[in-house]
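Record type: ASSEMBLY
Status: queued
Input:
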Amino acid sequence: AAMRPSPWLDDLNPAQRQAVEALDGPVLMLAGAGTGKTKALTARIAHLMTTGRARPNEILAVTFTNKAAREMKDRVGRLLGQTVEGMPWLGTFHAICVKLLRRHAELVGLKSNFTILDTDDQQRLLKQLIVAENIDEKRWPPRMLAGLIDHWKNRAWTPQKVPASEASAFNHRGTELYDYYQRRLKELNAVDFGDLLLHMVTIFQDHPDVLEQYQRWFRYILVDEYQDTNVAQYLWLRLLAQSHKNICCVGDDDQSIYGWRGAEVGNILRFEKDFPGATVVRLEQNYRSTPHILAAASGVIDANQGRLGKTLWTAEEQGEKVRLIGHWDGDEEARWVGEEIESMAKGTRGMRSFSLDDMAILVRASHQMRAFEDRFLTIGLPYRVIGGPRFYERMEIRDAMAYFRLAVSPDDDLAFERIVNTPKRGLGDKAQQKIQIAARENGASLVDGARILLQDKGLGGKGAAELRVLVDGIARWHDAVRAGERSHIELAEVILDESGYTTFWQNEKSPEAPGRLENLKELVKALEGFENLQGFLEHVALIMDNESESEGAKVSIMTLHGAKGLEFPAVFLPGWEDGLFPSQRSMDESGLKGLEEERRLAYVGITRAEEVCTISFAANRRVYGQWQSALPSRFIDELPADHVEVLTPPGLYGGGYGAAGMAASASPQIMAESQSDLHDRASRADVYNSPGWRRLQERSQQRPMSQPRESRNMVVDAEAVSSFTEGDRVFHQKFGYGTVTGLEGDKVDVSFDKAGSKKLVGRFLVEAAQ
Ligand code: ATP
Ligand code: MG
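Status: finished
Output:
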């Protein structure tokens, strides 16, 4: 069939076309939200392929999430009118580096079947090191060391390269422990997340031949969301692009939101220095959002200093103003959002109707999700939680995965430790110690240590018999994995049965046992999408999006961080309160760095919306065990008044909507420049003077806080205890920030950053916003 020469170029604007057609040499696309950066990047991939510049497997394309990678692959396929066969190197930094590292593992002392540790494993391992070194783990919790090591790895510092200026870290033991930790990982044939990049950078730096091979192989390099790359990622890219310099990076400094994870927005600014003569493309037309939404977003981000500054305009219809609404508390906010979503689905108040798929709730902190989930379950509103490891973080899922890991690689000692006595096999601390010793003395893995111990009759009674069953089981499952005859799904079920793990939960009488069994079933279901267990384990280790399986339209719930790069016709942004958004931590910090990152997050949130953007806040919020009254977010003050409509919740307060926000403008095109006037802003005072807010206050006088507080607190207290887990960051009014180090009844052990270790009743603590 005759095809137009390059249909993927047709719907690009001239600047985008320039970025797509400048195939050779470095290209930097630096532009605001919704200007079609990702679209142009995708078109570039199609163009590279059809012009014969590169085969699909010679293109290295880095996206920020696995979801984004899938979408990009689909889009390229649609542009080319065919399914794209294998773009094996389109994925996240982590996914790509796992593949590369499996090929070259031996260069950093690993075997190619290395295990990827999750944060839980990582912390258990660190804890062992800390205890072995006789360091007070209450004062120097493993989580703190984990954070430190991550920080170093993000900067591509191996233990040998950690600069002297860091010598005092972790009570002067940081570098040394980091070194031990790296050695221990090697013994275990394991890596953590940070290692994936660190090892690849090391390999490329130490083995020029390997580097050269990939410099030749990856003829073209493309990177989306470049503003959020950290130093290690940056070095890795620079090494690969050094020879041919065919690298195209796209990003937006205003959307840099991973500074807390070591991202360096400076990487963007360095690009032109690293790659002199780069084609720099600026895109200014936003194709995503209405003028009101864009102006509101610009108004907020204007308050940041030191921006590169960009012009953004849109030709979209004026549309709805950004809607702002205050609620009594978090539950009412969730209730209102639920009702609003239902009525928007039907199409009310002169708006078109929206499919549930078109609506998203973007929260600042993941604990905000629960109120919405509870509410939506109650009213039967289908929803999905996108992004994040929640499902895979559950205890029973971790246990089951440990069994799978052992089936794939029996000398995964951390997995063995996790399940050796789960379910209970009468193998207490003593027995486990014997296994450890037998393993150490023979330089063997724990499974082999256990075998030796049994052979030498070093263990007796019920424990020995049970241990025998376990090690035999592991050997059998491993054989089955290797033989590859049985489907991995069947095998997973067999493993869970033969290990006694399923039976354990069946016999368990606790109220949560049925849910745990459901989750285990879900886990086996999740395996269906994969070829084998190893592929699945990798997927989980890389924390894929956790979308539920059922069909039909659903509202999406996710964090603002997880919403990067996405767009939805209608977006809800709840919880705009000081202390939640911006987070308390960013407000307590001296300097503006944290606050400015929060503001960029607000910019990311608003700019996800195409047609309707609804911002809300609650006057009171139950944060774990505590009621807190809150002020509307300072970012609300920064919303330009002309583009905001304050809503009164109908029904709840007997009010109706204020003047309808349907003031369609005569001019379809407005400029929302980054330097737009700063003086005309909706202020918190406007909100306080709004009828909705006044009614809210009247109501607060009618309903004294003390009464509902008490009755609710009783329920809350019980929850609060189980709400915390070891390693959680918490805040206490008197002692400040700290980390949970242990739990005991209704008491929580906390190691406070400034005040030292304390044992406290859970309800006096709140989870610190991320
Ligand atoms: P973000 O900064 O949020 O990642 P982005 O710059 O990557 O945004 P895209 O997601 O690529 O923007 O594009 C935003 C929307 O605009 C998409 O729906 C896209 O299809 C549309 N779009 C982009 N360019 C054009 C164009 N030239 N003509 C029509 N629509 C376009
Ligand atoms: Mg994008």
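Annotation: The first helix runs from residue 7 to 10.
Annotation: Residues 543-549, 651-681, 699-722 have pLDDT under 50 and may be disordered.
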